[in-house]
């Protein structure tokens, strides 16, 4: 899966996917064959972290 490389574009893309199609980050990563830890680490560099209660990066 080709996802945005820029962290800010990535957070926007992932939040849209989570809102519209996936009940959790785990499900999104499984479906798109992405490394969940790698995604979280990348977004942590721009102060975003996954919030399971709201199912989005904040």
UniProtKB/TrEMBL annotation:
Superkingdom, natural source: Bacteria
Pfam families per UniProt: DUF4250
Name this protein carries in UniProt: DUF4250 domain-containing protein
Biological source species: Jutongia huaianensis
């Amino acid at each position: 899966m080709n996802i945005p490389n820029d962290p800010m574009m990535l957070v926007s893309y992932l939040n849209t996917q989570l809102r519209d199609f996936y009940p959790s980050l785990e499900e999104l990563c499984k479906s798109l064959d992405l490394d969940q830890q790698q995604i979280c680490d990348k977004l942590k560099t721009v102060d975003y972290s996954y919030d399971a209660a709201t199912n989005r990066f904040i």
